[in-house]
């Protein structure tokens, strides 16, 4: 999917306008002084980073920014109830797999309404500076930009260098096969409660996205084929799911109850030697108040599979509620434009966020200070990133629940891999058939 050139051209054209050259945030915000807007935040480092920067925005604009902090698992439902029943959210948090649902229902407003308004659009907006995979995946639906990338993730391999060296390794595994066959046995000692790896797999979106989908793509598999039929019984998909079952021998007991916090803490406290987690968790693992392994912390790309490097892709955009008043929509745009801007990107990174701006990562000092950046940027390249790591259509939330159920049962051994893949695929196709994907009622590509 590509951002329409008309949108980029409109934003770029404003740089030659005399009015645009005189643009300032203070003047643009003057009509909205005293306006209060509300955002949905998560309890994650990127949102704490935004909260640290918000007082500057409020001082410069006179716009009050409030937010409600929720667990990820409750954030979509909270916003959907708000849209359906009418509510108080102005700055909408959009996960990569919610963009289709939110856009198709008209719950978010096209960004062109704001970046084509010379009074509101910063001439330095520069949409081209966002990593294309982030702007397309998190903020764009049916070639319309609805949100700007804000809290951006790539799956990375975090590891305890000291544990690996003690086991005789001079670096992390390059492939998933190496991790399983060589590192797994050498780093696991169940009697001492030490394990090679932890794959966060709690039932819910963590199971469906961070565990189940993570082992499909590197092995050449996928949830669906090009016709939106289940691809789970393909040999490639089955190979990835079998691999996950084998890897459980080297993970802590009860891994199906591990969410992000448990996986990160297991590495931080020295219980496990490696985890694959989002880039946004680097500040937590590097914080000596939260981690015992700061002097031993290493980070690199996720291991490669038979299909190459296909790391997990996740993240959010900030969008504007279509139900907010015109003044709140304008104020929300000014905030979103500012917090995701090139000008604030370095401040955001230094406060603990992960910017979606390409230019900020050209800073050699940042690259040296934050070693997660280089593998993260590598993971966002066009030949590596998987934009549809999770399907982005409106039916994903329903499919996610089904995948979480079957994925958990498969890990627990209640269903064999082949049986579980077949039954899961059948339920997935039933949902998509009822939604009209096989009758021509819906386009297959967005």
From TrEMBL:
Its main location: periplasm. Keywords: Signal, Transport. GO terms for cellular component: periplasmic space. Residues 1-22 form the signal peptide. It is found in: Periplasm. InterPro entries: Bact_solute-bd_prot1, SBP. CDD domains: PBP2_TMBP_like. It comes from the Bacteria. Pfam families: SBP_bac_1 (PF01547). Belongs to the bacterial solute-binding protein 1 family. This is Sugar ABC transporter. It comes from Sediminicurvatus halobius.
């Amino acid at each position: 999917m590509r951002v329409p050139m008309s949108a980029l051209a409109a934003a770029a054209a404003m740089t030659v306008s005399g009015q645009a050259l005189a643009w300032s945030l203070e003047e643009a915000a003057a009509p909205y002084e005293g306006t209060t807007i509300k955002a949905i935040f998560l309890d994650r480092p990127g949102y704490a980073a935004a909260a640290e920067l918000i007082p500057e925005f409020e001082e410069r604009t006179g716009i009050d920014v409030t937010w409600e902090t929720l667990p990820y698992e409750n954030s979509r439902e909270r916003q959907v109830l708000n849209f359906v029943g009418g509510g108080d959210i102005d700055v909408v948090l959009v996960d990569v797999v919610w963009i289709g649902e939110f856009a198709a229902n008209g719950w978010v407003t096209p960004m062109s309404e704001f970046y084509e308004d010379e009074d509101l659009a910063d001439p330095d907006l520069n949409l081209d500076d966002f990593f294309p995979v982030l702007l397309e995946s998190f903020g764009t639906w049916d070639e319309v930009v609805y949100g700007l990338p804000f809290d951006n993730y790539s799956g990375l391999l975090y590891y305890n260098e000291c544990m690996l060296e003690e086991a005789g390794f001079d670096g992390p595994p390059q492939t998933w096969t190496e991790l399983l066959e060589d590192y797994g046995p050498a780093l696991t000692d169940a009697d001492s409660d030490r394990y090679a790896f932890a794959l966060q797999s709690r039932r819910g979106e963590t199971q469906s996205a961070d565990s189940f989908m993570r082992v499909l793509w590197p092995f050449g598999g996928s949830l669906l084929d090009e016709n939106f039929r289940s691809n789970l019984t393909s040999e490639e998909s089955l190979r990835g799911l079998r691999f996950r079952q084998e890897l459980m021998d080297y993970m802590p007991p009860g891994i199906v109850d591990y969410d992000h916090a448990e996986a990160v803490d297991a590495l931080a406290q020295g219980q496990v030697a490696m985890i694959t987690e989002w880039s946004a968790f680097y500040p937590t693992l590097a914080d000596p108040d939260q981690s015992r392994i700061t002097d031993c912390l290493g980070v690199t790309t996720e291991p490669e599979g038979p299909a190459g490097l296909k790391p997990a892709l996740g993240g959010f955009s900030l969008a504007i509620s279509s139900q907010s008043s015109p003044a709140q929509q304008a104020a929300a745009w000014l905030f979103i434009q500012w917090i995701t801007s090139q000008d604030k990107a370095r401040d955001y990174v230094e406060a603990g966020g992960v910017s979606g701006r390409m230019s900020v990562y050209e800073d050699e000092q940042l690259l040296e200070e934050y070693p997660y950046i280089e593998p993260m940027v590598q993971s966002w390249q066009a030949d590596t990133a998987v934009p549809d790591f999770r399907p982005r259509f409106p039916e994903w939330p329903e499919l996610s629940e089904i995948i979480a159920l079957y994925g958990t049962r498969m890990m627990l051994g209640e269903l064999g891999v082949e049986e579980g893949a077949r039954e899961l695929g059948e339920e997935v196709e039933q949902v998509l058939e009822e939604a009209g994907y096989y009758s021509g009622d819906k386009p297959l590509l967005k």
